Amino acid sequence: MATAATIVDDSTTDDATTTADTTATVDTKVANDDTDATTTTSVTDDKTAATTTDDWRSRFAGDDAKLLSFLGRYPTEKAFAEAAKKDREAARNSLKPLGDDPTEEEVAAYRKNFDVPDKPEGYLEKLPEGLVVGEDDKPFVDAFLAKMHEANASPAQTNAALASYYSIIEEQAATEANELAAAKEASSDALKAEWGADYKRNLTAMHAHLDSLPEPVKAAFTHGYGADGVPLGYNPEVLKWITGLALEANPLSTVVPGAGTNQASAVADEMANLEKMMGNRSSDYWKGPKSATLQERYRTLVDAKQKLAARG
Fold it and tell me: Which tops the pLDDT comparison, 92 or 178?
């Protein structure tokens, strides 16, 4: 019994030892397996981290090599995001308008940020190529730039405003020139239709009469505008009225234009020459292509002399 028991105990012990050894072997393998797993996992994580670190730039840049190079200055995605946030906040602050009562420092910083010159005349140094301010426009432009400087306008804003102004002025000038040309032509056509052959003589009388008026009065007619925006000098009714005044004041103005105060003498001299021709029946007054014109001219001079005599 004891031997059996001993045998049994030995067998049990051996089995236990074997089992323990086996268990230890299994545990060791499991441990080794865990170690391998841990090692594998650790290596995998390192590769993933490395892959993620490398790939975010490629994913962001795509095929843009320059953008990829730019992203290379940031060590991580987080660093890039933080930098982008900082830049956005800086831009937002730089675009922040001035308050109602800014300090000198705030104004100086704002002007520096937007390239606003220290003085209004500084805008003239930043005019775009081709934009020139004439001497006649300078007082207006100086006043305009002073107001823009008070508002802290950027050079780009003032340049755009000035360019628009000159563009509008040029368009208005072109339109006005076309309208004046049309008014002048219409006036000339109307007077030619009414006066016929006397058109040039009547205009000569009118201009002579205007020249006899005081300068301010003459300027009012030659440079003035009517309520319709048409110059008085291009208004047929005004021109006919002035011509009527001219002929009433000086009936000889169309007969001997340019004679001035010697009209009576000029009429007498020309009549004497024609009367001398009349005494020769073979002269141009009686024969040839000029006879009709000379005879009509003599009758005109006689009529002018009678009008002049009637006026005393």
Answer: 178
Last residue of a domain, one of 30, 48, 71: 71
First to last CA, the chain: 188
SS percent in the chain: helix, strand, coil, step 5: 75, 0, 25
pLDDT at residue 143, rounded to an integer: 95
Residue type, 96: K
The secondary structure of 58-127, three-state, reads HHHHCCCHHHHHHHCCCCCHHHHHHHHHHHHHHHHHHCCCCCCCCCHHHHHHHHHHCCCCCCHHHHHHHC
Number of structural domains the chain divides into: 3
Tens of pLDDT, residues 7-39: 334 444 444 444 444 444 444 443 444 444 444
pTM higher than 0.90: no
Q: How many residues does the chain have?
A: 312
Q: Residue 184 contacts by C-beta under 8 Å, 6 or more apart in sequence?
A: 234
- 3-state class (DSSP) for residue 225: strand
**Tokens linked to 52:** 């993620």
Q: 231 — phi, psi (to 5°)?
A: -55, 145
Host domain of residue 291: 262-312
| Contact status, residue 231 vs residue 225, Cβ threshold 8 Å | yes
Q: Which two tokens stand for residue 131?
A: 């934009």
∠ CA 84-89-93 to the nearest 5 degrees? Answer: 150
Candidates 60, 87, 84; CA nearest to 72 is 60
- The Cα–Cα gap between 180 and 186 comes to 10
* Residue 123 CB coordination number (10 Å): 24
Does 52 fall in a domain?
yes
